[in-house]
């Protein structure tokens, strides 16, 4: 195929970087790939940076030094983020989402690839400088968001199970107490899932009191790993929290079953 | 911000299309967004098509008619697909993956955002013309691949559960018999998860005899929905299949625990 021209090369660079978030590509890689001089590519990359800024979808950075190169960090501009979270609140406050017991139905939201990828991009931004080795979640409902967060950070996802599967090999199980209903629960993780001494973040769809987060801390201790951050899509404001340091994107303030009212808004203290 | 020039606009178009796979954007949308004439944009889109073709990462199509516009369908060229699947086989044949019972450890592979997104892109391509309404999977290990398939198809993901959760509302449960071990299992799905009369595909990480796929057929019947396709990452060749029409990307031929040997290769009949 013919050599690409600048107007095509800038697009190709954006596509490659965008398909590989937070992966560093050397200038040499692009130079070989396109058969272009490095100086030409530097100009291409400047244009790519401008486009990403224009779209408000993250940033492209040039890193210097031996491990240097170019990388794309996905993101949403404050404006896009605020629009997205407000739309989400509107969807989630529909009275027909109320489920007996004061819950709201969120599966269609948290399982939607479109929504979970944006949520993952937004959550990842809070942890990008935390030197994260793994994104950890507990089955089941948090998995899509956690996967998309891991994707944006370019880090592996680890899923703790409620029950031990036969395909995990040796595993470690712990007991923990749920924060709101004080029930004893169990979670387990295959021994090979985490490398000793790793830094992990816990991502989930919903947090009431934070009992599950505490369980994750216990589980990580068994692997000599550290929890360096917690991020959830929705926190319930009614419950006193067992954990202090976490990020939530939305706050569920009230579910009034009797009058069919839900109060949910973007969390303000981020 | 200044108006973008062609060399930037082509890149912006690719980024927007690529972040929204299989979503149709009207020419009018781009025309408003960039403040450019439609004729100019048509040329931009031709360049974007060329770039995607050059990279072997799917295709950009122009659809005519009232619902017309431009859309990007992710894909991998035959060359990239074959390279990727061969690399995957190499990783999966490492003897330290053998787990007692003739299983191989795949969690790090199927939970990796990088790998699951490529697997999802490849699987989606088989079902793009099937008029799919939902991608269905059963918790837990198939979720990342199913989510990425749903993402590539721009369709919602639905996850059947092993146990009924309190946050699903009313749900339907069925019993099914596993194909290889003849155990009775149960799966359930919230009543609001699927619209009556929908066309669904079932995506999973691993298929032995296909008992789970049969369970999905039963479950979908309860919702008056139809299973129009099955796609799995790995099928085990040893087991006689209960389902005939399915796509697998890799075939696991043999796990020799005693001698520490695994035989796995890209499935040839696709």
UniProtKB/TrEMBL annotation, chains A, B:
InterPro entries found in the cross-reference section: PRTase-like, PRTase_dom, Pur/Pyrimidine_PRTase, PuR_N, PurR_Bsub, WH-like_DNA-bd_sf, WH_DNA-bd_sf
Domain Bacterial purine repressor N-terminal: start-end pairs: 5-74
Gene3D superfamilies found in the cross-reference section: 3.40.50.2020, Winged helix-like DNA-binding domain superfamily/Winged helix DNA-binding domain
Species of provenance: Caloramator proteoclasticus DSM 10124
GO MF term (any one): DNA binding
Keywords recorded for this protein, A-Z: DNA-binding, Transcription, Transcription regulation
Phosphoribosyltransferase domain location: 119-247
Domain of life the protein comes from: Bacteria
Species lineage: Bacteria, Bacillati, Bacillota, Clostridia, Eubacteriales
Quaternary structure, from the entry: Homodimer.
Protein name per UniProt: Purine operon repressor, PurR
Keyword Transcription regulation included in the entry's annotation: yes
A biological process term (GO) from this entry: negative regulation of purine nucleobase metabolic process
Family, as annotated: Belongs to the purine/pyrimidine phosphoribosyltransferase family. PurR subfamily.
Signal sequence interval, chain numbering: none
Pfam families in the cross-refs: Pribosyltran, PuR_N
């Amino acid at each position: 195929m013919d050599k690409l021209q600048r107007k095509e090369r800038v697009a190709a660079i954006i596509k490659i970087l965008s398909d590989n978030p937070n992966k560093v590509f050397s200038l040499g890689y692009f130079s070989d790939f396109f058969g272009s001089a490095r100086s030409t590519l530097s100009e291409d990359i400047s244009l790519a940076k401008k486009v990403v800024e224009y779209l408000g979808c993250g940033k492209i950075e040039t890193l210097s030094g031996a491990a240097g190169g170019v990388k794309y960090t996905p993101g949403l501009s404050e404006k896009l983020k605020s629009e997205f979270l407000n739309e989400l609140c509107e969807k989630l406050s529909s009275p027909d989402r109320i489920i007996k017991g004061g819950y709201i139905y969120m599966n269609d939201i948290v399982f939607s690839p479109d929504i979970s990828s944006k949520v993952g991009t937004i959550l990842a931004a809070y942890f990008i400088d935390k030197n994260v080795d793994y994104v950890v979640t507990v089955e089941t409902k948090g998995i899509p968001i956690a996967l998309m967060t891991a994707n944006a950070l370019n880090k592996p996802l680890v899923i703790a199970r409620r029950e031990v599967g036969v395909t995990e090999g040796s595993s470690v199980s712990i007991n923990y107490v749920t924060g709101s209903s004080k029930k004893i629960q169990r979670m387990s993780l295959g021994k090979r899932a985490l490398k000793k001494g790793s830094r992990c973040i816990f991502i989930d769809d919903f947090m009431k009191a934070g009992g599950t987060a505490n369980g994750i801390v216990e589980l990580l201790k068994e692997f000599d790993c550290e929890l360096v951050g917690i991020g959830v899509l929705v926190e319930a404001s009614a419950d006193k929290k067992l954990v202090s340091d976490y990020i939530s994107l939305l706050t569920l303030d009230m579910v009034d079953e009797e009058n069919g009212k839900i109060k949910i808004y973007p969390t303000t203290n981020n």
